Amino acid sequence: MLRQPLVNRFVHWSVALSIFALFFSGFGQMPLYKRYMVADLPGLGWTSDFGATLLLHYLVLFWRCLHPADWKPVRHLQDNTDSIGRPKDRQEPERDIAIALD
Known about the structure:
0% strand; elongated; mainly alpha
């Protein structure tokens, strides 16, 4: 069952992954990864390099700030009314509340 259109799913996962990357690279700005030996794990040696984590942090931040798919005006121009609901969704709110409470 497809509950959300592709645009909504793309925006959701884009936001989720970028926030995770911001947290990961933000903690990399502090010497945590080297101190707690995360940098010793295979493939994660770059995490102890301040320049690499700073670059990753700035790239992800740039993506988050300029990614137009989650801007409301752009989504409104695409006629994507999922964020405000469709008219048929607001026809019988009492019935919907009764169903939700059962």
